[in-house]
Amino acid sequence: MFILGDDAQRTRGRDAQTSNIAAGKAVADAVRTTLGPRGMDKMLVDSTGTVVITNDGVTILEEMDIEHPAAQMLVEVARTQEDEVGDGTTTASVLAGQLLAKAEDLLADDVHPTTIVEGYAAARDIGHAAIDDLRLDDDVDDDLLRRVAATSMTGKGTGDANADALADLVVEAVQQVADDEGANRDAVRVHAQSGASSGATELVRGIVADTDPVRDDMPRDVTDASVLVLDAKLDTRETSADVEYTITSVDQLSAALDAEESELRRYAEAVRDAGVDVLVSQKSIDDRVAAFLAEAGVLAFESVTQSDVNAIASATGATVVGSVDDVDDADLGSAESVRVERYGGDDLTFIEGGADASTVTLLVRGSTAHVLDELERAIGDALDVVAVALDDGGVVPGAGCVEIAIADRIRDEAARIDGRAQLAAEAYADALDALPRTLAENTGMDPIDALVDLRAANETGRAGVVTVGERGEIADPVDHGVIDPAAVKHEALASATEAATMVVRIDDVIAAE
């Protein structure tokens, strides 16, 4: 009996497992050398010749043209890590790859996939408990958050800007949008603008929009502004029916033009009479309406993106309205300052001091497009981890210290695990060792010697692979300010384990061409 089509391909048993594991390991190896402050960058070139230079794990994996379904699972690991906590994507991907490599050895020793899954799950739970025990007792204050941000950005493309200087801006931005319930990460926007060194990056307490005035003769700086946010065209109305008008005289044509002019002027007068100083429209504004608004001294913007419109409305406290008719004071927002500044050949609009003072923007500068893109990614990760650290309230030592401690804890408790699952738990510990070993290798240290020294140092204290200048050494990461949010470590363990066990359990691959 034939169930599958002639063009279907089927791989079963050990062949399917070997193929899937090899694909997962290949993806993990692609990002392994980017791990840590001395990690290397990858240059990715797509079919159109567009170049991306980065050492951000999730960016690398998403830019790669990955077709193998098992390999795509590791891409999903990085994407989930990025979505949940904003950092640790390379750690999660490398760990997933190592778990697959250890599972391959276990399968070769006839350990059943279900047993491997059981052992990995037990080891993961031990790891979560170990992370909680490693949380630092220090209060999560601004100084600690700055170290978290700097740790996240160290080794990433920050141009000529010192990671510590950028960390100050990141923490200031997150604290600006924090309240008793935590940090509203969505209230921190990042706007990238080329044309200056990365050291010129600044924090704007408000919104930065990539838009310019409808007319050059409009004011470019308005203080104490009343802001109207509009989602409607300011143009002549169009009939919904397909009709024709017959004009038989000049007087009729003049009357039609006068009526049209009157309608357009009425729009501008309605805006003026409502006390509007700044008009932000998501749709177009007729040139004649714009001229009338300029005469009235109104600063107007048209075709503003929906995301910017929503952000401006939120920041100023304005209501997005669908018509300029019957606008009342409750619909208007307010801003201390609305100004337009030129950056190179582009105009940027700054709306600062709105009714919602917790909306801020990091204006990221970069000398080239490649530097700017990587800096934007680095700052985005830093914002995420600072917000997570502030919300979760827990941080742990970085530099591989946590991974070594988890591996030691798993080995100590593996004897309590029944049957062959104990072998899988011990293999899990060996997989964790690959992370500090990779950190050591990327800093130029001998990975085997570094791992031995690291284990010995953690027997009596706390140690990690810390980068000092151009070299790496075994030292206390907390003393060197290398700190990660506990949530990042928890998520890396969970997502890597889930992906690895899912791949291991697959013993039949059916693909249609």
UniProtKB/TrEMBL annotation:
Keywords of the record: ATP-binding, Chaperone, Nucleotide-binding
A single GO molecular function term of this UniProt record: unfolded protein binding
Keyword Chaperone on entry: yes
Pfam families hit by this protein: Cpn60_TCP1
Assigned protein family: Belongs to the TCP-1 chaperonin family.
Protein name: Thermosome subunit
Species whose genome carries this gene: Halarchaeum rubridurum
